[in-house]
Amino acid sequence: MVSECRQVIDNVDSIVKDNTIRAIVRQLISERVMSDSDGEKLIAQRNEQLKMIQGLACLTRDDVQRQTQVAVVLSAVQARHVIDKLWNMQEKLMTVLTRLIGSGGYAFDAFCSSYGLEGNLAEMSSKLASLNLLSESPSNVCVDRNMTFDLSFTMLTRIVYKYSSLTLDELVRDPRGGPDNTACAFYQWSSRYVKRISQKNLQDAAEGDMPIFSPELKAAYKDRVLRLKERQLFWDPHTCNYGQLLHEMPIVGEIILDYFKERKHIEEDVARIFAAFRKANCLLVCIIQWLECQSPSEARRQMARCIKMVLEESVPDEKEEKDRFLTRKC
After folding, report:
1. How many of the other CB atoms lie within 10 Å of CB of 133?
2. Could you tell me the CA-to-CA distances from 264 to 212, 255, 271 in Å, in that order?
3. Are 155 and 101 a contacting pair, CB within 8 Å?
4. Which of 47, 137, 270, 316 lies at a CB distance of 3.0 to 4.6 Å from 60, suitable for a disulfide?
5. Burial class for 274, CB neighbours closer than 10 Å (0-12, 13-18, 19+)
């Protein structure tokens, strides 16, 4: 039955955004018209079909999970109306943005989508870019400079991956003629990263495009990396220039990669280095992006696995994050 009417059912599911077969079957089971085993087989068959259809695969998720996600989305849309009034009130703005970045990313994605539907995403992202530029160097303008820089950088990075059709220039420049934020650290770093990623897949890409660091320079930075093993930052969050700090991440990344190449490392020590970066997530993002630009190797794979392990250990459970967001509605 499902196979014979599949196109019609696909169209219905696409319109109502629900798994129609599952809803009907569970109703039949509750009325004792269909057995549990037959019903679950039919639902499983339909789920396999939905997994093959772009845009409908999400309908295979359990009803309770989907209801939670819908609640998160609605709360994020409410948060958007609050944030629109807070762009000039940094302390309150950071509180709301911190809540949005959790919940498995659903809340922030919904927040961005609400702007995207109205064609105002670039306007919003340009405000994040302005905050990124404002918080890059020490000043009395930002209430919490470190949080402002970290959140603006990580949020803009997520937008880059979610909305690949938008160029970096479109993301950081207000389309209504606002300030030019191309000097912000996010734009400067991402411009190099995007360029290298695009060149990496070209056969005639110049190997010399990646920076080469002298042994003397790497030796000077090894002590800084060793401090990270003790989970001690080698930068002062109050006085550092984040633009310059981002510029140093490739050197740090290469030193860590050398540990894996030379096999002169203890995995727990390297894990502590990456854990220290969780105090500034934007820097860990840069390390990951830098690593993706490196040539495939066993050392690169091991380093990526170590980063993944640290992230999995430190990221809260997705359901827990969603529940926390819903209990702290903006």
Report:
1. 22
2. 21, 11, 14
3. yes
4. 47
5. buried
Task: State the alpha helices, DSSP H only, in the chain.
Answer: 6-16, 20-30, 36-51, 63-83, 90-100, 106-117, 121-134, 145-162, 168-172, 185-200, 215-229, 242-262, 267-276, 281-292, 298-314, 318-327
Q: Can you tell me whether residue 84 is helix, strand or coil?
A: coil
Q: Scanning the structure block, which residue is given the tokens 């599949």?
A: 6
> Who's near 180: CB < 8 A, 6+ residues apart?
173
CA end-to-end span of the chain, whole Å? 46
Q: Is 180 helix (H, G, I), strand (E, B) or coil?
A: strand
The DSSP result for 51-66, as a single string, is HTSTTTGGGGS-HHHH
Distance CA 252, CA 234 (A): 11
Task: Domain ranges for the chain, please list them.
Answer: 1-66, 74-197, 215-313
Determine the Cα–Cα distance for residues 153 and 75; give it in Å rounded to an integer: 23
The CA distance from 284 to 247, in Å, is: 13
Which residue is it, tokens 């005639």? 204
Q: In whole angstroms, give the CA distance from residue 81 to residue 69.
A: 19
Strand partners, 180: 173
User: What interhelical angle do 298-314 and 242-262 show, nearest 10?
Assistant: 120
Tell me the one-letter amino acid at 112.
C
State how far the alpha carbon of 145 is from the alpha carbons of 108, 132, 241, in Å. Answer: 21, 9, 11
Q: What is the pLDDT along the chain (330 residues), one digit of tens a residue?
A: 556 567 777 776 776 567 777 878 887 888 788 888 888 888 888 888 888 887 777 777 665 455 555 565 566 667 777 787 877 787 778 877 777 776 556 677 777 877 877 788 888 899 999 999 989 988 767 778 888 899 999 999 989 888 888 889 989 988 777 778 999 999 999 988 775 555 544 334 444 456 677 778 888 888 888 888 887 888 888 888 999 999 999 999 999 898 888 876 667 778 888 888 877 889 989 999 999 888 899 999 999 988 888 777 765 444 444 444 444 444
